[in-house]
């Protein structure tokens, strides 16, 4: 699902007060981090991921890998922070997706 600019703007506003819940450090983007991101997206639908100073990963490459492997959408790449969105597989966790679909 490709996000429209209005949906992206809505999600940016929702993510603005959030803190990054996942940090990618010197070990890079490994399978443990991908699993954590999958679980966080399933629970929250919208998360922030930050790349720490000591990582060799590139923000754009990380975003592309996550989009391909997890199937999430990159809402915003700013500085060393990614905002990711994916509709939850569990109906009880779908708080944002109905609002996003109505936009």
Automatic annotation (TrEMBL):
<dbReference type="InterPro" id="IPR017924">
    <property type="entry name" value="RNA-binding_YhbY"/>
</dbReference>
<dbReference type="InterPro" id="IPR051925">
    <property type="entry name" value="RNA-binding_domain"/>
</dbReference>
<keyword id="KW-0694">RNA-binding</keyword>
<dbReference type="InterPro" id="IPR035920">
    <property type="entry name" value="YhbY-like_sf"/>
</dbReference>
<dbReference type="InterPro" id="IPR001890">
    <property type="entry name" value="RNA-binding_CRM"/>
</dbReference>
<feature type="domain" description="CRM">
    <location>
        <begin position="1"/>
        <end position="97"/>
    </location>
</feature>
<dbReference type="GO" id="GO:0003723">
    <property type="term" value="F:RNA binding"/>
</dbReference>
<protein>
    <submittedName>
        <fullName>RNA-binding protein</fullName>
    </submittedName>
</protein>
<dbReference type="Pfam" id="PF01985">
    <property type="entry name" value="CRS1_YhbY"/>
</dbReference>
């Amino acid at each position: 699902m490709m996000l429209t600019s209005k949906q992206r703007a809505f999600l940016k506003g929702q993510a603005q007060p959030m803190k990054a819940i996942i940090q990618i450090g010197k070990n890079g983007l490994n399978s443990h981090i991908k699993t954590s991101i999958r679980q966080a997206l399933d629970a929250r639908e919208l998360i922030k991921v930050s790349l720490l100073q000591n990582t060799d990963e590139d923000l754009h490459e990380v975003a592309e890998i996550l989009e391909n492997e997890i199937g999430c959408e990159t809402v915003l790449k700013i500085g060393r922070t990614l905002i990711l969105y994916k509709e939850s597989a569990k109906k009880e966790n779908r708080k944002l997706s109905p609002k996003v679909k109505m936009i």
